[in-house]
Amino acid sequence: MSELETLKADIKKLSAKATQAKMDLHDLSEELPLNWRSIMAVAQRAHEAFAELEKKREDLKAQERA
């Protein structure tokens, strides 16, 4: 598998991970005030997932330009 194909596969996996993190955050918001103590942990996971996805997308754009 080429580096470009590997990057696209990584993005697909990260996109699914980020979507799940978003849904977890949404579900938590609907349950409030229950489980309010987990807000920071759930939000941190969502933040990290989207940051990683954004980085990989930038890497893909750079690869495609090269």
TrEMBL record:
Protein name according to UniProt: Rop-like family nitrogen fixation protein
InterPro entries: Helix_hairpin_bin_sf (IPR029012), Put_N_fixation (IPR007774)
Keyword annotations: Coiled coil, Nitrogen fixation
Domain of life: Bacteria
Sections of the chain in a coiled coil: 4-66
Stored Pfam families: Rop-like
Originating species: Bradyrhizobium xenonodulans
Family according to the record: Belongs to the UPF0437 family.
